[in-house]
Amino acid sequence: MEVTSSTSIVDIPLPQDIKPKHEHMHPIKEISIGAISGMIGKLVEFPFDTIKVRLQSSNSLHRISTYHMIKSTYQNEGFFNGFYKGLKAPLVGACLETSILFTSYNFASTVLVNTLKDQAQSTKYHTESLPFWSKCVAGGFAGLMASFILTPVELIKCQLQVANLVSHDKSSATYTSLIKSTIREKGISGLFNGLSSTVTREVIGTSIWFGTYEYINDYYKKAKDPWIKNENIQLLLSGAMAGVTFNLSMFPVDTIKSNIQTHGMFNTGSKRSAGFWSIAKYLLAKNGGIRNLYNGLGITMIRCIPANALIFYSYEVLKRNF
């Protein structure tokens, strides 16, 4: 139940035997379900993500259409080597990321439930559900935790995805070789290049991600006559819309992050800074202006809808049945 300006938790008397709806799961079950959900989503979205990263990073070379990028990727590299290059790292990363996201979100939600219940100063008052703002806060915390896993994984993933654009040797770049060269040249800290932009994207974006999902779900739970009555479709729609709002709101930050993480591959020997604001200024100053920050948005919208719908749907179904 959401808390508005005229309503507080202590104003809502509920019987003592009613417990908060926030559900506790065994940690192993929670991690496993999150990992499976993340893997399903990643397998669906990865080919689209490859094209998205290449479109974002090709700002360093020249503007290219989505269709031309798809066509040239397939013709020059084939299906698996082109669209699924670098899958291993993000597939493992997706398992870790989604596990951390849902586990951290549920942990933060539990803390907030207990905090709000304590503020009621009476055992006869309980939170039937978290206020909307607290769900967003829990989502932001989950995004912060996931950022430290995502940064090195996405660094290698992005570099592998664009490696074929800058190298004539299609097999020269591998997951292991990029990790070794990064550590050799920049140390362990080099694997966290782009951390600040990833944290920005994940804290704000994941807050919006979980917030959108919970908001739409709450609507269907409370609506007397919802326009979609099938519960499975409701879950899929809620997940799809969460993905749409996340990507629409955070896409410019994601573009800057991709350019930071692939800067060295397109600008060998360049002394130009690859910081957040320097990359942002560089992209805005190029021909196309602000449109450069949204290069690849179209294909991102196409990939995020089924991927996020399946992540949330599989998580809820697995949680319900296992």
- Major pleated sheet: none
**How do the helices and strands follow one another from N- to C-terminus?**
HHHHHHHHHH
- General form: globular
User: Any idea what the radius of gyration is?
Assistant: 21 Å
GO molecular function: L-ornithine transmembrane transporter activity
Solcar repeats: 25-111, 130-219, 230-321
InterPro entries: MCP_transmembrane (IPR018108), Mitochondrial_Carrier (IPR050567)
Keywords: Membrane, Repeat, Transmembrane, Transmembrane helix, Transport
Give a verbal description of the structure.
The structure is a single chain. By secondary structure, the protein is mainly alpha-helical. It contains 10 helices and no strands. The protein has helices spanning 27-57, 66-77, 79-83, 88-120, 132-166, 175-186, 195-222, 231-266, 276-285, 297-321. InterPro entries: MCP_transmembrane, Mitochondrial_Carrier. Keywords: Membrane, Repeat, Transmembrane, Transmembrane helix, Transport. One of its GO terms (molecular function) is L-ornithine transmembrane transporter activity.
Write the layout of secondary structure elements.
Blueprint: H1 27-57, H2 66-77, H3 79-83, H4 88-120, H5 132-166, H6 175-186, H7 195-222, H8 231-266, H9 276-285, H10 297-321
Helix pairs in contact: 1-2, 1-4, 1-5, 1-10, 4-5, 5-7, 5-8, 7-8, 8-9, 8-10
